[in-house]
Design a protein that fits this description.
The protein has 155 residues and is an all-alpha fold. It contains five helices and no strands. The protein has one domain. 83% of the residues lie in helices and 0% in strands. The radius of gyration is 19 Å and the shape is elongated.
């Protein structure tokens, strides 16, 4: 994504960059939702392949099912971060990460695990929320469109 966006903006074709990002997000959503559905339906069987004990089988099955929730957001974050970096905006993804990690990875994780007692499921759910929050932050930055003008060279 970084290369496509950088080259499109360098050629003064920001509409091509935006179209490429949107198409990539579309195809990533189809792929990750399909993969997530497989994770949800076949979680138990995926874990059995590794010869898990019943306790591990149960916990790993929960983790795989919850990870299905985060797959689309993880892909979207990678795509949007690459888009912004390709446009020359390396700070925005950093700021989003610096906000989301303490709030979600640490704050919400602590709340889910230590306060609510949700255990491993709480850890994975907090991680999924972290990826979702990062996506929301990056999507907001992407929609503003400032990234299209960062590399503009005066003529």
């Amino acid at each position: 994504m970084s290369t496509i966006v950088g080259q499109s903006l360098g050629a003064r074709l920001p509409h091509i960059a935006e179209m490429a990002v949107r198409r990539t997000l579309f195809w990533a959503s189809i792929f990750t939702l399909s993969l997530g559905l497989i994770f949800i339906i076949f979680a138990r069987y995926i874990v059995i392949i590794f010869g898990a004990t019943p306790d591990v089988l149960h916990l790993a099955g929960i983790a795989i099912q919850i990870s299905a929730l985060e797959l689309p957001f993880l892909a979207f974050v990678m795509i949007l971060s690459g888009c912004l970096r390709g446009a020359g905006d390396t700070r925005s993804p950093l700021y989003v990460m610096l906000i989301c990690i303490p709030v979600f990875r640490f704050g919400v994780l602590y709340l889910f695990v230590m306060v609510f007692g949700w255990g491993l499921g709480g850890v994975w759910l907090a991680t999924a929320l972290d990826w979702a929050a990062r996506f929301i932050g990056l999507w907001w930055i992407f929609k503003r469109g400032v990234w299209k003008r960062i590399l503009e060279i005066p003529t």
